[in-house]
């Protein structure tokens, strides 16, 4: 529980304060900023600390500090989660949470603080429910005397009486691939971060049950693994509050009454060896004189029936490179290449990259800092040193109708007492996360004249 909540600017000046229990002296908040600065000087900043029996818990968002103070030995995770929910709600209301928006909307903020916490205990934190009876227009507050049922109901994330002409559910399984490959072509780090996002347009109070090809579920129930595909073992699974956790722990069934509209149902992680979906080979070749050539080969290492959309390959080049010339192709030309001097990189864009295909791109640059004579002799060593320090190649992409982990939605059942029929739609997407491949440590020398 929290005794008081404060919103401060970066200098520690209080913009908004709300005291819930009355057991915190007014001078407590004045000690906050000196304590934070002291921790930053010692290079050990922490989101919570204790001073003279008072606990300070805070987060920083843009040019603001959101601070909770308590005397009790409270659950720190619960209070930190409340502060993050506070930023989400304020951002939904004001579009941008910063000092100016706080000053312009202090009346609404006090209303929200009163509804979201009572006597130091978090209450309703769902923005959609709060927006039903706390609005931007003051006169609407007088019209709606009673709060919606969701405030006092066990299902606090959904209001009653919702009606749609056409009942539909859209489910997106999105996986992001984090990958780091060293200059020798070895995968140093790989993981998959997944999320299941939903858009529900359903009448009434429907009950949904979602089935995945979950390995633990098959083992727990003694069932055989699915004939098609494979069973996966998800780690770090996190659910929206609507999911019945006790049911999931018992039989791995994902059962829930969904919020209305768009929300993230769950997220997961798989720490597994991932074969690079798009493989990049880079060769840097210097010519006699003051020119350098980059040869980049991109290969799509996924099934031929899939295609990666909006592929963007960013290759770092020398900071002083100029007069760029490009040639793209492999049997036929593909994509477009531009030079981004502000990023010291060339950007190769391929709108659609089919699985199993590979393409080659060449780029020539002039290097005005490298002239003839002794500097030409030293060019190889200078460029080698630069390549070691240069940022890695980064790749962006999106592959629809494909998941790298093999996760599958086995079923999505929708049950509502009125017995209406609803249409579920499922879509799979794999995209890049932190996807990087380091430049080769070795370069080639050539006496050939550049084309």
Automatic annotation (TrEMBL):
Pfam families: Adap_comp_sub, Clat_adaptor_s. GO terms for biological process: intracellular protein transport; vesicle-mediated transport. Belongs to the adaptor complexes medium subunit family. It comes from Jimgerdemannia flammicorona. One of its GO terms (cellular component) is clathrin-coated vesicle membrane. Keywords: Cytoplasmic vesicle, Membrane, Protein transport, Transport. It is found in: Cytoplasmic vesicle, Clathrin-coated vesicle membrane. This is Mu homology domain-containing protein. Residues 166-438 form the MHD domain.
């Amino acid at each position: 529980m929290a005794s008081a909540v404060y919103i401060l600017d970066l200098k520690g000046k209080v913009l908004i304060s709300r005291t819930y229990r009355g057991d915190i002296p007014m001078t407590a908040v004045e000690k906050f900023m000196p304590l934070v600065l002291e921790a930053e000087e010692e290079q050990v900043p922490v989101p919570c600390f204790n001073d003279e029996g008072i606990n300070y818990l805070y987060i920083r968002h843009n040019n603001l500090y959101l601070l909770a103070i308590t005397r009790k030995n409270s659950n720190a995770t619960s209070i930190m989660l409340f502060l993050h929910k506070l930023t989400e709600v304020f951002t939904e209301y004001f579009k941008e949470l910063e000092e100016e928006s706080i000053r312009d909307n202090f009346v609404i903020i006090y209303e929200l603080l009163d509804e979201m916490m009572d006597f130091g205990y978090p209450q309703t934190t769902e923005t959609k429910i709060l927006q039903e009876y706390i609005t931007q227009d003051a006169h609407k507050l007088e019209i709606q005397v009673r709060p919606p049922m969701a405030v006092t109901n066990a299902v606090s994330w959904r209001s009653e009486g919702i009606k749609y002409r056409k009942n539909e559910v859209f489910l997106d399984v999105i996986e992001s691939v984090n990958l780091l490959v060293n200059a020798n072509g070895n995968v140093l780090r790989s993981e998959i971060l997944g999320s299941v996002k939903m858009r529900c347009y359903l009448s009434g109070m429907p009950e949904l049950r979602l089935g995945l090809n979950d390995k633990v579920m098959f083992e727990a129930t003694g069932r055989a693994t699915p004939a098609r595909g494979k069973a996966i073992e998800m780690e770090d699974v996190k659910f929206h509050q609507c999911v019945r956790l006790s049911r999931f722990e018992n039989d791995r069934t994902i059962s829930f009454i969904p919020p209305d509209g768009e929300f993230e149902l769950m997220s997961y992680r798989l720490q597994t060896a991932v074969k690079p979906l798009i493989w990049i080979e880079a060769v840097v070749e210097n010519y006699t004189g003051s020119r350098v050539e980059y040869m980049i080969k991109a290969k799509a290492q996924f099934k031929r029936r899939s295609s990666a959309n909006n592929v963007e390959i960013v290759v770092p080049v020398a900071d002083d490179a100029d007069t760029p010339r490009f040639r793209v192709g492999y049997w036929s030309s593909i994509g477009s290449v531009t030079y981004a001097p502000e990023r010291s990189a060339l950007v190769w864009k391929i709108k659609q990259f089919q699985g199993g295909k590979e393409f080659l791109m060449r780029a020539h640059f002039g290097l005005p800092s490298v002239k003839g004579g002794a500097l030409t002799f030293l060019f190889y060593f200078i460029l080698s040193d630069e390549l070691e320090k240069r940022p890695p190649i980064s790749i962006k992409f999106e592959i629809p109708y494909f998941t790298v982990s093999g996760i599958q939605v086995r079923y999505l059942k929708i049950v509502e007492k009125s017995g209406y029929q609803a249409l579920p739609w499922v879509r799979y997407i794999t995209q890049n996360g932190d996807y990087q491949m380091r430049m080769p440590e070795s370069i080639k020398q050539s006496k050939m004249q550049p084309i």
